[in-house]
Write a structure and sequence with these properties.
With about 45 residues, the chain is mainly alpha-helical. About 70% of the residues lie in helices and about 0% in strands.
Length: about 45
C-alpha cells in the first residue's frame, strides 16, 4: 500500500470516528471507554 492510499484510508476512518481525534491522554481514553460502556448499557 502506498502512502497516498494509506492517507486516504486514515482520513476516511477519522471522518467515521471523529471523536477518536479528540482523545489526547490516557485519562481521556479511560473517560471515553467509560462513556462507551454507559452508552452500551443504556442501548
Amino acid at each position: 500500500m502506498n502512502f497516498a492510499n494509506l492517507k486516504d484510508q486514515a482520513r476516511s476512518l477519522f471522518a467515521e470516528a471523529r471523536f477518536l481525534v479528540e482523545i489526547r491522554s490516557g485519562q481521556e481514553y479511560e473517560q471515553a471507554l467509560a462513556l462507551m460502556d454507559e452508552l452500551i448499557e443504556v442501548g
